[in-house]
Amino acid sequence: MRSSVSWLRLRNTLTGLTKIHVSTSSRRWIFSSGCAYQQAQPNSQNPVFFDHRPAQLSVTPLVDTSVPAHLPVVNAKRTTITRPREHTLDHEGFYYCVPPEQSDVIYGMSPNSGAFDMRHRTLQNLRFQWELAKESAIMIRKPALEVMEYVKNTNFAHPVVRYVIYGREGSGRTCTLTHLLHFFKDEGFILLHVPKISIWSRRYKEVQESKFKPGRIDLPLDSVEWLQHFLLQNGEHLRQPNTKLVTHKTYVWSKREETPAGSPLSDIIDVGIKRARYANDCIGVLVEELKRIVSESDHRVAVVMDVANALFTPTTIPQVDKTTVPADRLSLFLHFRKTLKNDWKNGVVVTTIDRKGIVDLPLRFDGGGNQFPRYLLREEGWAVMDPFIPVLVNDYSDKELTNCIDYNIETRWLQHVNAGTQKGRDELKVVSQNNPETLRKLMSRL
Questions:
Q1: Mind listing the pLDDT tens digit for each residue in 213-265?
Q2: Is residue 410 assigned to a domain?
Q3: Distance in angstroms (rounded) separating the CA atoms of residues 210 and 277
Q4: Which end of the chain is more exposed for a tag (fewer CB within 10 A), N or C?
Q5: Which neighbouring-strand residues pair with 138?
Q6: Are residues 334 and 257 in the same domain?
């Protein structure tokens, strides 16, 4: 039984991905597309029994752009319009590709862009599919179109308008933010993007006491990585000659280090990246300066946060008295909370809320059905965010589901023999219940 299970695991690992040659003195085993066969070697001294001596293993990637015979030739519905501003309801359910030069900046797809954790949280599982398909394809969906239409008709002389994107788990809230990030970047906004905040509550890299605010807790390494992420997305704004993005007062970091008034904001970011112990405070300075600058100039800031309700829920960071650090003592959370307030203008705030990964005991025993903002934001989060515009993200429509399956067959992410048949599509629809995340998990195994 154990050998059969091991063989199944090996077969699933190798199917359609690699060709492996295992050479011994007597025979060569070849694994290709999940099937194994023996090939006799010339002058074999032992043609009957398998030689158990250590084998030489070499892996040769299969580079084959042809469509397998058992797969139908399918072309997913796409649009050549790459500017999100020009997307309309006529394009709903279609795919479009983010230009590579923009994809590298917004999502950090370049391998040398740094801040790996930030890139992984931004795209999550979408990143692997983009790397396989060699293109940054995003499905155009109604919630993103709705927010873009609101933003295009916003009066930025008024206090910021806040949007809360909610929906069933796996319905595509983070992918909606992915589309909106491209929209804001294309419109010339300064991006203040905070991906997957809930991870900081559980998987932190380093913890230290705040140098400037006694009683607060800093996450220095995570803060450095976020500053690198911010610098990557907004480098062209920060490095412009005669930029208005400058400090209005002097910031003293130590007896020998200070940033004088009138310095570019990039100097603040450089201090945080080079000196990790100041990184949390540099984020606080950056947030305060950006809110002041955009309220007095023609610059605009788009605050885009994934799982914003994590800012108001407990963490798992331990304390000496065996309790955990509350969210209102975490410097990073307090700084980002300030961006959610509507005490500034020339900006927009787009957030999502989620149950997954939230460290909050009541959520474990409520049945898992309540996804509404009033419940997930809790009293403190509601007090900060209210009033806001709620945007619901539903599961795939039949049109979106069909085009998603077509795209995955076209890019060979889905290679099952029945993938292109109507029976196979109906089965995927029933089992996934049109939920994008469930559908992705199903297709990744076929």
A1: 888 999 999 999 999 989 989 988 888 877 789 999 999 998 888 999 989 99
A2: no
A3: 8
A4: N
A5: 96
A6: yes
